[in-house]
Structures are given as C-alpha cells and as structure tokens.
C-alpha cells in the first residue's frame, strides 16, 4: 500500500508540476534542435549534391565545347576536301576536253593518212603503169638496135659483146616486167 501511495503522489506531483513546469518543454526543445540538425545535415547534403551537379555540368560543358571544336575542325577539313574535290573535278573535266580534242585530231590525222596512202597507191599504180610502158618501149628499142646491129656487123667482136650485153639487159627487163 505504501507503494501505491508513493505512486499516486508521483503521478499527482507530476501532473501538478506539468501544469506549471512542463517536462515536455525540454523534450520539445531537443526535438526541435534534432529536427534543425537533421535539416542542416540535409541542407549540407543537398548543397554538396548541387556542387557536384554543378561540377558535372561544367565538365559536360567543357566536353561539349571540346566536341564542338572538334566538329568545327572536321567541318573545316570537310570544306577543304570538298574544295580539293571541285578542283580535281575541274582538272578531270579539262583533261577530258583535251582528250576529246586529241581523239578528234587523231581521227583527222588517220583520215589524212588514209587519204595519203590511197593517193600514194594510186600514184604508184600510175608510175608502175607508166614504167611498164616506158620499159616496154625501152625493150622494144633495144630489140630494134640488136636487130640492126646483127644485120650489118656480125664479124666484129665489139658488136658481139654489145649485143650480148643488150640481150642480158632485155632479159632483166623482161623478168622485171614479169615480177610486177
């Protein structure tokens, strides 16, 4: 019973003092400080994350600037190559035009050459025909001379050698005519 009495006094005094001196006040102050500390820690964590994100953003911007510079360099190289390509295409076009001119000149020269060959062949045929006629005339004259030499001077040795030489010339002329 004594125990029950002590417990009752404790509860009564507690309730009485809690009206005048609340024990919860100190408890609430520590809860508020704890919440403030938690909020400060959360704020520090958030500030650290913001700082990290800003650094990552700066790193990404630096990488983007490097990539943009590289893209710009590649575009300049591409423009140079396109300019070189245009120059080469112009050279190719000029060479094709020169090649066409040379092909035309070659065809023209081949035509002139064919015409000259035809004219040469016609001239050779004419010369051969004229030569055959001249040769036949010369052979006929030689034969006449031989006949005349044979009629009058058979006794002389000079006229015989002359006749033999003329006969040999006539034979050579005849073989030349036959070969043609």
Automatic annotation (TrEMBL):
Residues 43-126 form a coiled coil. This is 4521_t:CDS:1. Keywords: Coiled coil. It comes from the Eukaryota. The lineage of its organism: Eukaryota, Fungi, Fungi incertae sedis, Mucoromycota, Glomeromycotina.
């Amino acid at each position: 019973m004594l125990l029950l009495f002590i417990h009752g006094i404790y509860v009564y005094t507690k309730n009485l003092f809690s009206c005048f001196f609340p024990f919860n006040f100190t408890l609430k102050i520590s809860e508020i400080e704890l919440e403030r500390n938690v909020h400060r820690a959360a704020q520090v964590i958030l500030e650290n994350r913001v700082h990290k994100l800003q650094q990552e953003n700066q790193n990404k911007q630096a990488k983007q600037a490097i990539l943009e510079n590289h893209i710009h360099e590649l575009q300049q190289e591409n423009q140079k190559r396109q300019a070189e390509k245009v120059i080469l295409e112009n050279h190719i076009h000029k060479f094709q035009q020169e090649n066409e001119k040379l092909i035309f000149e070659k065809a023209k020269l081949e035509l002139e050459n064919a015409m000259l060959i035809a004219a040469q062949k016609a001239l050779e045929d004419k010369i051969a025909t004229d030569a055959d006629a001249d040769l036949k005339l010369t052979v006929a004259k030689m034969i006449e001379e031989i006949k005349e030499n044979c009629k009058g001077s058979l006794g002389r040795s000079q006229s015989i050698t002359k006749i033999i030489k003329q006969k040999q010339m006539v034979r050579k002329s005849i073989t030349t005519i036959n070969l043609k």
